[in-house]
Amino acid sequence: MRPAAIGWLDVPRGWLDSFGEVGRFGARVAGLVYSGRVGRYFGESVRQAGILILGSAIVIWAFVFILGLQCGVIGAYFNRSIGAPSLAGLFSAYCDLREGVPYAFGYILSAKVGTGIVAELGAMRISDEIDALEVMGIEPVAFLAATRLLGAWIAIPFLYLVGIGVAYFASYLAVVDQVGDVSSGGYLLIFWTYQDFVDVLFSLAKAMVMTTVIVLVGCYYGYTASGGPVGVGTATAKSMVVNIIMVHIIGMLGTFMFYGANPRAPIGG
Amino acid sequence: MAAQALARAAFPLRSFFEQTGSMMILTARTIAAAVRPPYPYGEELVGQFLFVLKLSWFPMTISTFALCLGAPGLQAAGVLSLFGNLDRLGGFFVVTAVRFIGPIVTAAVVAGVAGTAITADLGARKIREELDALQVLGVDPIKNLVVPRFIALMVITGLLDIFAVVFGMSAGIAAELLYHQPLGGFFATLFANALVTDLAASVAMCSMFGAIIAVVCCYKGMTASGGPAGVGRAVNQAVVIAFMGVFSFLYVFTTVLLATNPELQAIR
Predict the structure, then answer these.
(1) Model confidence over B36-80: pLDDT tens digits?
(2) Which residues of A touch B255 (CB under 8 A)?
(3) Closest chain A residue to B113, measured at CA
(4) Which of A42, A166, B54, B91 makes a 20 to 30 Å CA pair with B6?
């Protein structure tokens, strides 16, 4: 992607192009997982889940922690400005659980896991390892892409739920210890009042859809990389464009679906 | 044996400090090269500026609109409609769209879209030994490649933040229209709560994001190594480090800004 080689409409056009291609590839991979044909490589799936936990968990939680701090600070000062500092828990509960953590999770997952998959599979494609797999009679899409998707489905719910806890802790630190307008008990009362178990499930649903899309996009761009070492870098950069847009669209659609008709707040009758 | 185990455990920490130090040195050398007289990078600067703009405008538009329509738009409007004061959404949008969402979307899009492209570009040149060739020819890669990217990203990230704020506000308007509200109240509270301090701080913060992203991505691109996997891995590390750096900076900057500017906490 040299500066001269790109026009004003190349990015939207490329996004639309890849939308169909990734959709077809993703349907194939998801079909392999759902039909159970990935079960032949279940060990590899568990290994991928392990790599995900060992390699990415700390980074993901650190990023979510920073976002939790940010939510707390913004919320504490906003509630001070409207004259209700004791209601900082309302902003934190919404910002952490409903919106902030899914987006932060999507960002860092596409950065760490998505581009990681592209770099890994792309290098395999360039050095003809994927063709070698095919020659050996191992189905490459099932062995490389479907196992990664299944591995992500195994590991990500736990990583995400712990991430929510990390963000809660960070918001508590920011609101109660850093800004200090509200007491610990007052903050937690409002904080826990404005969320319930269903909200956690909605939040988890958003994160799982994002995870699926990010892993599939990563697998697609890695699997179809071409053009030598340069091609792998370009494919990695391209996957980020698609992922960033998809994360936001999924977040918005999720909010519309889950909260569009019903704000789910314990206010009024 | 014990010393070996200690060295192995301390390796990630050591490499963290080494890389941070190298990036700081790169920053200092970039700034020094930018102000020292011969300025050969004008054409490259314009090229990079347009390159980043062409890459970022579309993800920027979609992302800001979607995020602002979902998070502060629909969620806050839902709660406010229970109280019957949907006109207050304008004041809320100053807090969220200008202070929070504008900068984070700008950072995510510039780091994810433009930063990765820069790392891929520089990494490819490093792998093909073009950077070494430039040095042999007597062309300083920092002056001719890093400085234009550094300046271009600083300027354009600040400008894209205004773009983000505009699209965030239009998402707020869309949310009001979804709830069948007249827009007068939205604009009234918006202008009552909007301060120049907020917008100026937002733009300044985003310029610093641009600087961080440029240094991280150029550093990772120029130190890429290890064949085909190397460039991909460099892009991966660059975008993770850029995200962490930018968001840490965002938190520190927001805290300092809000704590030192009491006029942002007044009731209006």
Answers:
(1) 888 888 888 999 999 999 989 999 999 999 999 988 889 889 888
(2) 73, 178
(3) A241
(4) A166
